[in-house]
Amino acid sequence: xxxxxxxxxxxxxxxxxxxxxxxxxxxxxxxxxxxxxxxxxxxxxxxxxxxxxxxxxxxxxxxxxxxxxxxxxxxxxxxxxxxxxxxxxxxxxxxxxxxxxxxxxxxxxxxxxxxxxxxxxxxxxxxxxxxxxxxxxxxxxxxxxxxxxxxxxxxxxxxxxxxxxxxxxxxxxxxxxxxxxxxxxxxxxxxxxxxxxxxxxxxxxxxxxxxxxxxxxxxxxxxxxxxxxxxxxxxxxxxxxxxxxxxxxxxxxxxxxxxxx
Amino acid sequence: xxxxxxxxxxxxxxxxxxxxxxxxxxxxxxxxxxxxxxxxxxxxxxxxxxxxxxxxxxxxxxxxxxxxxxxxxxxxxxxxxxxxxxxxxxxxxxxxxxxxxxxxxxxxxxxxxxxxxxxxxxxxxxxxxxxxxxxxxxxxxxxxxxxxxxxxxxxxxxxxxxxxxxxxxxxxxxxxxxxxxxxxxxxxxxxxxxxxxxxxxxxxxxxxxxxxxxxxxxxxxxxxxxxxxxxxxxxxxxx
Lengths: 261, 239
Fold this sequence. Notes:
By secondary structure, chain A is mainly alpha-helical. Chain A contains twelve helices and no strands. Chains A and B meet through helix 7 and helix 8 of A and strand 7 of B.
């Protein structure tokens, strides 16, 4: 049998009617499906938007804290000439090695008003750091810190010391050499560490659960909401939304790192 | 008149033993000798990038290093300018910003950049003021480095083999430029080289180095400038 290509003009009436029917049915089907999904998304948005926005705020705050302290301590470890530098880096890297729940336990020991250290901290600052957003930020910052520290130290050590010497011959004081020469030249490594640190802060679970709790509308971050979604009847849809949101947030962090580099 | 530089230092690094003393007045003094004679080490000691084991260094009458009295002025406060062998321009800044960063005598950014631009014009580098060092040729980079070394109104400018990484044509061109710019600026200079022709063409005084010692000092006769620099030392030893 020889196949012939037919244009719209070549189709007979039966074929035209069948094609129109298929298109209409497909249109209805897609329309109903889209409407149903949209309804679902809108319904779940109210549940998910809180954790999503909290996670973004926590990640940004934790990234700022871990980035600042990580770069500062990375600079000291890279440039300082004192014994025990490697020991200090190992201590700073403990949150990578320790299980997050152990980190959470130590944080509770330090922050909880019920403990000696935490009670002192609460009296001095007048602020409670557990079971609120502050606790989430601290837990995420502690998780992100080692990545910022190690990346910053490596990047700063990689800067050509002759360029820093050249800057000193120009009369720049050491703090300007650090800010205008060393850190700009180490920016790619620092940005990479900050990006990984922020990603780690976004995904932080164990320590956040212990220090922040899992209080709906108050300390429930995206990571905690993923587990909670297992208890809802529409968990597949919920999980899909959460994963999509995590991807969006991760992409944002990745773009942030790329633009800074 | 106060000498631009008075130096008498000793420094031992492994088997190498540096022990030198000389005085620099106006004009260009060339430390000339084979590689490994201790010339660049001497510049590093003058700049404060390394510390001597013993001795004193005074720049423009100010003692910046005195080992006996444990006096040690940091590099930043020595008011020196330095031109390195490979320029050592900051790769993340434009040529103009590299020079502006070295300007000490103005506080505002615009004022610093205006001074930097005028120095780039003096060394013939104004065309690539906005370019990064990575996109410049070796000769262009050294022009910018020369402008940077002089832009901060230093009491003394140190040039560590500034032409040794360049081709012969560019080297010849830059010799004239370096001498012209330094002499017109009035800033005394100490230049290190192992090239005899370069030493003759650039220097007013040649200080010969060998194995960590000064083996002689000689004035260079210049037809266009017959009078020797003020306070220049008498010739001593074979150079």
